[in-house]
Design a protein that fits this description.
heterodimer, A: alpha/beta, Rossmann fold, 6-stranded mixed beta sheet, 35% helix, 24% strand, B: 354 residues, mainly alpha, two-stranded antiparallel ribbon, 13 helices, 2% strand, globular
């Protein structure tokens, strides 16, 4: 096998859009055997979409795939396997109540026969062949995540894969497991002459193992080069788009006039005080997070996904409990932080997943006032007329393209987000925590949502903006905090912040 | 190409009724084969099941009598289901209600009727709610699935009744395992003279209408629906999801319990082991066939009352099993559920992901 010639798969001119949102804008990328190819980019840059295209999970709008120079149609994962492509996604597709061998047998190409003995054989020899030690007869649900991931990798290998895609494989692993995974990747490259595509946010791992690095930014490849000689700093700069500041400045222009001098904020009162928040969750938990947010400022929280932002918003919204630390809203200490009490104290939340915040089957009007029904109630009876009036007003004011009696789930993402923002700002919160407010929205909706957030700030709301889009954070915020491994590593004035510095902090490479 | 269910943005008014009609036709075709196989004539069987009970006053009133407990259990189940609380325990809660009503009825000798009748219904409500309490607490405090716990408490309620009837409540006159007749004071008035249709029908109808009003018109009802449709989103909107579930579960149990009291005080007048012929389970069918609509539930309960009475006469006349009525109900349940899914969602076969 060592002597096999280098072969390659090319993705050419791949375009894919979801409605008005362009996820991939003519991407061309070559993947070669005997190479570890790192794929970098911020969230939403298109990495996962691109790899799903290669594995047949997503159909591109246009573009082609060539395997060793031959045009190949990959419409399903079955086609992908036939072309030698395997993928381990972030969510494992294992039957948790079955054993390792049973899972391997299930994924084999036999339609009728389940060959358990053969599957056991694969599991037993996996250690010698690939350095992948897996217990053949252990039940999946009893295995640690690192081992479950190995079973997934083994499934791909057993299907004869030569191009293995690993989608953020280290996001769920502890440091020691990361080391052994990287050893496996190295063996697959050197002993099996395979291509391994590693989607990752973690510069240190890429520095250690990658032969080639491609950086995606906003659906386009901004760099695809040999990894040798690239430092973490170079990669971060490419990823967050430093040096492209012209573009960013242009985008933020409409809002620049709305920005108040942040110096004034120091004199404003603190509306949200977070002190030493910690949670016990091992991965993605919080570790002594503390910060103050003043009335009339936007406090941005930047960070690569999975560094505790989701958990922080959950704790602030009261849907998750902190193991230590406290929250103070407008000087009032929150003794039992549940959603209702937090909201009563003046907290407003826009969750990162708008679909999880919307009751899809209920009409717009009922969703819009769901959080303050008492103000639309007399003797327990809903005042439908007042609700409709409120809803019509919000539809006008927030430019929502929908009727008040339309089920919320049938609205487009942008309009759904506007309904949720109308609900949030309709209660005039003292603190508004908005998480990934523009994720997946088209350009027009994005700029509208951002202007809403700026307006709320100008009206005196203390805004916490959690976003993985660094441009967004820098454009809107007065101060920027960077989260890394569950804690805030730095808080800087936005006007003094450089993209490079923040990018390094996000990647954990800054001292 | 995988089928996906996508929520319809609007439904023409005729789609629902049309699909229900198709479901009914499919049900007739499927059950016709079974009736044929059992040696009966399907057309004659349907005539006995659906038409002949409506051709005499006796048939009509007996159908209404058979429908009365189903009005209660249908509303009880629909209310819980609307909140996303899968109460399969209406049977047990109804049986608990009969225990409460009998307990009250056996010692209400000297009470005036205006106190005794509300009292016996209240006793049923309290016992029904108590029977619903443990699964409701397990669900709202510990997240333990209520389908299993409510279901498994049903036979327990029947065992409690068996124990009572073989022990303290054994009939003092006959020595048989059924209770003494309850006090005259708690017996509910007949509302259709010359029949056995009693005040329980009115009480059940009022309860179903009350549920309809509460769920559709009141703030608590909107909260209940939001919790049922999307508990996560409801929690984010600051609603007390667990409290809503607990309260709804208890209300559901109370309604089923009143249904049990209505059987004791309205028609049976004593507790027997066969006091319920699966009213709680049929309530699930009623609620589902009515698409969790409370007014529709009254209609469906009356329809199933007709089928229950009719399947006995069909069984007698054609010597086919009397359970054929239940077969018809069950097949109808399956086809209507399918029709409801199709009416609310459209099926998209395009492999276009989002």
């Amino acid at each position: 096998m060592n002597s096999s010639p280098t072969s390659s798969i090319w993705l050419k001119e791949i375009r894919k859009s979801y409605g008005p949102t362009v996820a991939l804008d003519g991407v061309t990328l070559g993947i070669h055997t005997r190479e570890v190819h790192a794929l970098l980019g911020e969230n939403g840059a298109g990495k996962t979409t691109l790899m799903k295209t290669l594995f047949g999970l997503t159909q591109p709008d246009s573009g082609r795939i060539e395997v060793d120079g031959n045009p190949t149609v990959i419409a399903t994962p079955r086609d992908a396997r036939a072309a030698g492509v395997g993928m381990v996604t972030q969510h494992f597709s294992l039957v948790k109540t079955m054993t390792v061998a049973e899972n391997l047998a299930l994924s084999s190409s036999h339609i009728v026969r389940v060959d358990l003995e053969q599957a056991r054989g694969i599991a037993r020899t996996a250690n010698d062949r690939f350095g992948l030690e897996v217990p053949a007869d252990a039940v999946i649900s009893e295995l640690p995540v690192a081992l479950q991931q190995r079973v997934e990798i083994l499934k791909a290998l057993a299907a004869g894969c030569r191009y293995l895609i690993l989608d953020e494989p280290t996001a769920v692993l502890g440091p020691r497991d990361v080391d052994s995974l990287l050893d496996v990747v190295r063996r697959l490259r050197d002993d099996q002459s395979m291509a391994v595509v590693l989607i990752s946010h973690k510069m240190k791992e890429i520095e250690r193992i990658a032969d080639r690095v491609s950086v995606l930014r906003r659906g386009a490849v901004v760099a695809s080069t040999e990894a040798r000689g690239m430092t973490s700093k170079d990669l971060v700069a490419l990823m967050v788009g430093a040096g492209q500041s012209g573009e960013v400045a242009l985008q933020s222009e409409p809002l620049a006039s709305a920005r108040k001098p942040s110096v004034a904020n120091a004199s404003q009162k603190v509306v949200l005080r977070v002190a030493g928040l910690s949670t016990t969750k091992e991965i993605g938990g919080l570790d002594k997070v503390s910060f103050d947010v003043h009335s009339g400022e936007i406090f941005g929280i930047a960070g690569v996904s999975g560094n505790g932002q989701t958990e922080l918003v959950e704790v602030l919204s009261g849907t998750s409990k902190a193991s230590a630390g406290g929250i103070e809203i407008d000087g009032q200490e929150m003794k039992s932080p549940r959603p209702a009490t937090l909201m009563a104290a003046g907290m407003g939340i826009l969750g990162e997943d708008r679909h999880a915040s919307a009751v899809h089957q209920l009409p717009v009007v009922e969703n819009l006032v769901l959080d303050r029904l008492d103000s639309f109630t007399k003797w327990g009876q809903l005042n439908r007329r007042a609700m409709s009036a409120q809803c019509d007003e919000a539809i006008m004011q927030f430019e929502i393209k929908a009727t008040s009696h339309q089920a919320l789930g049938t609205l487009s993402g942008g309009n759904m987000q506007k309904v949720l923002l109308a609900r949030l700002f309709g209660r005039s919160p003292k603190v508004a925590v908005v998480s990934q407010p523009t994720r997946g929205l088209d350009v027009a909706s994005t700029s509208y949502v951002r202007s809403l957030i700026a307006t709320a700030r100008d009206q005196g709301t203390g805004v916490v903006l959690v976003s993985e889009d660094l441009d967004e954070v820098l454009e809107l915020s007065d101060r920027v905090a960077v989260m890394y491994r569950g804690t805030i590593v730095a808080i800087v004035e936005a006007r003094e912040a450089s993209r490079e510095r923040i990018g390094e902090l996000m990647a954990g490479v800054a001292k | 190409m995988k089928p996906r269910f996508v929520l319809r943005s609007s439904t023409p008014w005729w789609r629902g009724p049309l699909l229900i009609a198709i479901a009914a036709v499919v049900t007739f075709v499927v059950t016709a084969a079974l009736i044929r196989w059992a040696g009966g004539n399907p057309v004659a069987a349907y005539r006995y099941m659906f038409v002949s009970p409506l051709q005499s006053k006796f048939g009509i009133t007996e159908s209404i009598l058979a429908a009365t407990p189903l009005v209660f259990t249908g509303a009880a189940v629909a209310l819980a289901f609307r909140a996303g609380y899968w109460n399969i325990g209406a049977e047990g809660q109804l049986l608990a209600g009969t225990i409460g009503a009998t307990w009250f009825g056996l010692q209400a000798e000297n009470l005036p009727k205006v106190i005794a009748v509300p009292g016996v219904l209240l006793a049923g409500a309290v016992f029904g709610a108590l029977w619903a309490l443990v699964p409701a607490l397990l669900r709202s405090r510990l997240g333990i699935d209520e389908v299993v716990t409510t279901l498994l408490l049903n036979p327990v309620a029947l065992l409690v009744i068996t124990g009572l009837l073989n022990g303290p409540w054994r009939n003092t006159a006959t020595g048989f395992p059924d209770s003494d007749v309850v006090a005259e004071a708690v017996m509910m008035p007949i509302v259709w003279p010359g029949s056995r249709v009693h005040f329980g029908l009115v009480a059940g109808g009022l309860m179903a209408l009350g549920c309809w009003w509460y769920v559709g018109r009141m703030a608590g009802g909107l909260r209940l629906r939001a919790v049922g449709l999307a508990p996560g989103a409801a929690r984010i909107a600051g609603l007390e999801v667990e409290r809503t579930l607990l309260a709804t579960a208890l209300a559901s149990g109370a309604i089923a319990g009143v249904g049990g009291a209505s059987e004791i005080a309205g028609v049976a007048h004593q507790l027997t082991i066969g006091i319920s012929s699966g009213f709680g389970y049929t309530g699930v069918i009623v609620a589902t066939l009515a698409a969790l609509n409370f007014v529709g539930g009254i209609t469906v309960a009356l329809l199933l009352g007709v089928v229950n009475v009719g399947s006995f006469s069909a069984s007698r006349a054609l010597s086919i099993p009397s359970t054929m009525g239940e077969v018809v109900q069950s097949v109808l349940l399956i086809t209507v559920v399918a029709a409801l899914v199709i009416s609310r969602f459209k099926i998209v076969w395009k492999g276009n992901d989002r």
